[in-house]
Amino acid sequence: MSHDPFDSHRDDPIRQADKADAQEPVPAVEPVTIDVVSDVVCPWCYVGKRRLDKALEMQPETPVVVRWRPFQLDPTIPAGGHDRKEYMTRKFGDRLAEVHARLVEIGREEDIPFAFDAIRRSPNTLDAHRLIRWSWTWGVQGALVESLFSAFFVEGLDIGDLEVLADRAALVGMDREEAADFLRSAEAAPEVQREIEQAQQVGVQGVPFFIFAGRYAASGAQPADVLAGAIAQAFTAGEADEE
Predict the structure, then answer these.
(1) Which listed site, 95, 101, 192, 234, has its alpha carbon 20 to 30 Å from 215?
(2) Start and end of every DSBA-like thioredoxin domain (predicted)?
């Protein structure tokens, strides 16, 4: 199985995809490719995913391909992570309770039961991003991203732990042993690092960041109707190009 996930009909707006050996049939209508630059320890990215899910429901007739791209809010975190309480207190100080309270309220609107008190470690997310990248080849990338968000923000699991990551891979239908072997290797680490650098080079400074068909961009956890409008606009522009 190839570990390069970004085989698509449309050129990649962040980097040119390598082509897979097997060629998929070209669809009758070109889908709108949505690249979501995100980090799995970013609560606003979880909110953004839920709002994107709603936006897709608002555009049921529009063919869409969603691809999840890596970003690290803090790449300096060591492999073993940091104590969560100490790390967040250093980062937010006396504002931490207020920040969490606001996110809990917003999460409730998106059916996300944020449980910040359950989180014990702030992990380095490089391995999680490697797994997300590889999961494209299994056809479960979106499901894995959702599972990792839930693992961290709802269940309080350490998603920097390779065993936890392998478990989450199995939950969404990936082979656990293959996932564990992949995670124990360094495979895809250079590609993930390169994509993070390239995202920054094209202007991504915060996440979530949405790129629609390489044409339009939206920064932040925009409301579902805004994202739905961008999807429709990108699809209309693509149809015009084909005429």
Answers:
(1) 192
(2) 33-232
Task: Write the DSSP assignment of the chain as a string of letters.
Answer: --------SS--SSSPPPPPSSPPPPPSSPPEEEEEEE-TT-HHHHHHHHHHHHHHHH-TTS-EEEEEEE--S-TTS-TT-EEHHHHHHHHHGGGHHHHHHHHHHHHHHTT----GGG--EE---HHHHHHHHHHGGGT-HHHHHHHHHHHHHTS---TTSHHHHHHHHHHTT--HHHHHHHHHS-TTHHHHHHHHHHHHHTT--SS-EEEETTTEEEESS--HHHHHHHHHHHHHHHHHHH-
CATH class for the region spanning 32-242? alpha beta
Please report, for the chain, the start and end positions of each structural domain, with discontinuous segments joined by +: 32-242
